[in-house]
Amino acid sequence: MTSASSQRGLSNLRRTVTWLFITLLIIYLLYSFYLILNKDSPECTNSLSSSSELSTKESISTTFPQTENSTSLSVQENTGDPETGLKHIVFGIAASTNLWDKRKEYIKLWWRPGEMRGVVWLDKNVTIKKNEDLPEIRISENTTKFLYTNRQGNRSALRISRVVSETIRLGLKNVRWFVMGDDDTVFNVDNVVRVLSKYDHNQYYYIGSSSESHIQNIFFSYAMAYGGGGFAISYPLAKELEKIQDRCLQRYPGLYGSDDRIQACMAELGVPLTREPGFHQYDVYGNLLGLLGAHPVTPLVSIHHLDVVDPIIPRMSRIDGLQRVFESMKYDTASIMQQSICYDKQKYWSISVSWGYVVQITRGNISPRELEMPTRTFLNWYKRADYTAYAFNTRPVTKHPCQKPFVYYISAAKYDRSKNQIVGIYHRHRESYPYCRWKIESPESINAIVVLKKPDDNRWQKAARRDCCKVLPSNNSYLYIWVGNCRAGETSEM
């Protein structure tokens, strides 16, 4: 009896568990069908989205309150222009009233009225003539409240270092970059745009280059962008600098110049120098032929210390020589000063072309490794002929009478629209040459060189490479040379 009763109880329990399982399964299936049928409901989606956005916004506002800088950043990001252009750059030029009449001519060479924005900051008022193609002129704020204790320097460094902050306070709109330079600096503004376009202007960037002189870099800093060669600061970093700069200046009264004060403040902000070797301080004396005739494979952005070095084309004024180079540069701004190396194997000549500036012919075979190395036609900033004084490799000016180069400077350039090529004419610089015993034909019979080249605005969007050149069929007094992108398998083979 007991056994039968136990079996009935066990059977009832099994039925109960089975029905409970079936009931739960039915409920689960019904709930699953409900979710499937309502997953695309707009009300449900909008409700969830709104709830999610509200939750996210509340979280952000609670954890990371918006600052003035973040507001500025959002304004800069929504300008609608994906690519950086000249209109997004503001130039700040530090100038001196005492030298204004002379140095304003440098600014006229590269300034483009109506296309560019910028301000020249002076210490005193100057007289401006009508129709002078110059940027806006402003007077810097008084800096007597700042301490300056460097005995070798000048208090004007304080005024010049504040050009960045004073330019920002003008409240200009749609700015991505501020570019600073001196009044004795010329810029290749198209290459300024090309260089800055590589970088995200919404990030903190401090871009420039060091001095050519080891001693200058040791005295000041290898981490500093030298102000004469120019440097660029992205908009958000400039805003941060403006907030702290006056307090920062008070902490460094013993520094010498304006650019080392800027770098000191950058160090406080934790922003390192991003190096672009096309910004040229040129802390040298003498002839720039060696440097510009073997320019590195990088866009030429600026040239400084034009009052210190010799005119870049002999027997011409500094302004006229630069003007001639700028005339050829307008046809291909990306390629100005870019070096090409080729050989006339019949005449046994080595040829180096610095496009838009100079062509040099040397008797004998000189390897590309040597030709791309600047010759020391210049002296160190401390006027010593010391090959260890520079932050790059150099080679001596040859003393061999047969290997003195024959130099041809640019004299004219034009664009041949029918052939889509630039025709540059380079005339020989007249000077005496020592007697040579070699039986190699002398280049002195060549009075002019014609260089043919197609414009190449996109050259810096590709991997950097030196252009190739080739000697074309020529006559006794004119040498024709083609310059352009190297073709597959083409080299500067001796």
Walkthrough of the structure:
Strands 12-13-14-16-17-18-20-19 form an 8-stranded mixed barrel. Strands 3-2-1-4-7-6-8 form a 7-stranded mixed beta sheet. Strands 5-11-9 form a 3-stranded mixed beta sheet. The protein contains 13 helices and 20 strands. Mean pLDDT is 88; it is low at 39-79. With 494 residues, it is α/β, with parallel strands linked by helices. The protein has helices at residues 2-38, 42-63, 68-77, 100-110, 156-161, 163-168, 189-196, 214-219, 235-250, 258-269, 289-292, 318-329, 368-371, and strands spanning 89-94, 117-122, 136-139, 177-182, 186-187, 206-208, 231-234, 273-275, 279-280, 284-286, 302-303, 339-344, 349-354, 358-363, 378-380, 406-416, 421-428, 448-453, 467-472, 478-484.
